[in-house]
Amino acid sequence: MENIDLLLHGFTIAITLPHLALMVIGVLLGILVGVLPGLGAPNGVSLLLPLTFGMQPVSAIILLSSMYWGALFGGSVTSILFNIPGEPSSVATTFDGYPMARDGRPTTALATAFGSAAFGALVGVILITFLASWVAKVALAFGPAEYFAVYFLAFASFVGMGGAPPAKTIVALAIGFAIAAIGIDTVSGSVRLTMGIDELVKGVNFVVAVMGLFGIGELLIAVEEEFHARAVSSKIEWREVFRALGRLPWHGVALLRSAAIGCWMGITPGGPTAASFMSYGIAKRFSSRGKHFGTGEVEGVIAPETADHAAGTSALLPMLSLGIPGSATAAVMMGGLMIWGLNPGPMLFIDQKDFVWGLIASMYVGNIVAVVLVLLTVPVFAALMRIPFVIIAPLIVIICAVGAYSVSNSYLDVILMLGFGVVGYLFKKLSYPLAPLVLAIVIGDKAEDAFRQSMLMSKGSLGIFFANRLVTSLVVGGVALLLLPLVLQVVRMLRGTAPDQAKPEEMRIT
Amino acid sequence: MNITSRLLLSTAAILLAGAAPACAAWQPQKPIEFVATAGPGGGTDNLARAVQNIVTKYKLTDQPVVVVNKAGGSGAEGYVYGKASAGDPYKVIFGTSNAWQQPLVSKVAFNYTDLTPIAAMAQDEFLLWVKQDAPYKTATDFLKAAASGDFKMGGAQSKDTDEVLTRLIEKAAHVKFTYIPFKSGAEAAVQLAGGHIDSHVNNPSESLGQWRGGTQRPLCAFSPKRLPQGPKITATEGWSDIPTCVEQGLAISQYEQPRTVWLPGKVSADQTAFYQDLMKKVQATPEWKDYIEKSSQVDTFLSGDAFDKFIKEDLEHLKQVAAEQGWLVK
Description:
The complex is a heterodimer of chains A (about 500) and B (about 325). With about 500 residues, chain A is mainly α. In chain A, about 75% of the residues lie in helices and about 0% in strands. Chain B is α/β, with parallel strands linked by helices.
């Protein structure tokens, strides 16, 4: 196969001493920006971009993409240890990762997260290696109607997820949509819901919302409920790292399913955030231990992490082959490509073979470098969990405040972040689910734009959502997911078994 | 601080500065913030970073320069920030003609008069693009087909430069388009490549990759004369091979988008002069020429009265379109 030859040639470019050194530097910097909330991969990459102008394009992209891998890994660390997602795409990791860490298993949670992330990334690269041209065609088939259908599918996989009563989920979604609508509307160009505050024209940044909802919200709950017993005496053992990695193959189905969802969302390009949420939602529904999701279930970490990295990796493909960035970081890198004098697009694969295949080979090597480095840091990060709560709590407040401020150097964001903290607390107290709220804040405006663009195109006819096989199957899939819990309930009722039969048993386990 | 002590302090400062020549007007004394009203990777962000690199490389000021992105609300976030920083000469706002166009059609909390204009530095051209395999060879063919069909024109944002140009084409060629607003020109380009829309009016840099990659091609350029000769983009054609729209019988002789540089309001004439001078020095470097060529823009420099005049004329133009479309908000 021609691709294999090209890939081997790529390895000769990627595995040289200077490039390996660049990978290590990039990954370490990436872990740093990933761990620091509010910085994140897109910002980190854009800070580093000016330094690359004097470099060879291959070296430059290797440095930047290694930083991207590092940031993707680093983003999971704070999600798991402190319930503060460093990256939008690691929000779903908090749902089970944080309970695991809180219950004294931070090492297992981190090692599982990194292991499944590496698997996801690997599947993503393999996909890029073999399916580059096919993938390019798939992405082109996505018009506004198809985009809306994908977002709809992501929302539907959540509503139907169970856990919270569907009515509460829909309330949470609706609040999220309202928050996403703040700012300038793409389709009409008018300013919405700024409530007389000039600065709100920029909209509510996702990081601000998430740090408040999760970081501060969780802190408020903790202060109220279990102020004393927070320091976790977790033993740090290398054996536990390997044991967690060794157990991964037992979750093969979850890994493969999540990787498939991730690749699909990365290419289409729904992006890593939607991918991790959807993967979590679907895992919760189909996993045999789905009922226990949210209390510290290993598969609840595997599902979002694998999908996140598979999507993050495959998101680079549409960027290279079509010039469509599949994620915010990919968009920044695309800016870099142009500055280095390369034009993303189909011709890149023909004109710049060394660059493209050097990059693809570096994805294999870079991910291995990243996973080794990040696993080495697990005991260090896990040790953070032993710090007593009275010290950690003010630190979390500082991290959240600095993170919110650094998003766009604005005090308003800090106030908003604290406000979201209160919302997060109330949501937990009244047992409303946070996940749909966050999902709606992140992709709500994209879904709205896509829907209204479709309506403009079809002159108001809903027929556009059934115009071809692709969009029809997406919509039907979404509706099916939405109706699934209803159908299951009806079936159970017809059989005459009480739906709550499993409850006593469940109580004992949790 | 009362006036006396302020005077004393400034006297002391002058004494301390000592050897500085009396004519050396204002110089920055602390780090300068470049505010890009676009996200990382966008055209305005690229400009701010190109200027930052040149300023740093040639040490055009002793102070460090940092770029921050304030892209929210189609750039309104950056302009509002500039308005709120009135009197602060350490914030330089990089934008487009949005600075005066947006307040006209949208209830944003700023107007360009809240800012101090420094310069318009580069002009982005507009072209009419169709899908590679579309049957139209010329703009004339395309407009003829558009007159009888239901054509979808994509563009970046709503009531912004792309939609204004679309409405101008409608008027000039007596056709009607369904305008579909996307977040950016790059998004519109992808939608055209997939055949979801029929055309768009992207800047050269927004669709360069797709033209080279053979997914879409330009029909005509909205400029008074053909674009400058550059390297060939496809095997046979470069920018200068694209006819002007006037040549093709579409009577829009000029439409372009300047990249603009501003200070907040209420800064002194000295401070304004410092930055105008700085931008002139930037423009004289080979790195600038390189940036202009790579981003396929046109090199221009307007400041002072010429820039004012340009804004006023552009506003007149826009007001007419906006009034006809019922977009005016004030």
